[in-house]
Specification:
The chain has a single domain, classed as Alpha-Beta Plaits (2-Layer Sandwich). The chain is 36% helix and 41% strand.
Amino acid sequence: MSLVLQVNIKVKPENLDNFMKQVLENAKAARSEKGCRQFEVLVDPEDKTSLMLFEVYDDQKAFEVHQAGDAFKKYLANAVPLLASRERHFWNKAL
């Protein structure tokens, strides 16, 4: 069963350019991971500081491998402090 992660993000306006560079780098790295099926960075067309990450992994184990990777650790250390808020929601496909 696949695991879906939806991350709602609000970036501090002064950090937007720096954050976008880092989140896109993390997304690119994630897409090359074996258990990552999809990783999208979506931007609100009316508010560029509001984003949603939409990630699909084969399962919980694949997500844990992603979190253990160097790209995610770099993102967590350097990009997350640039945020005003970050909410994560996990989803599973209904049977």
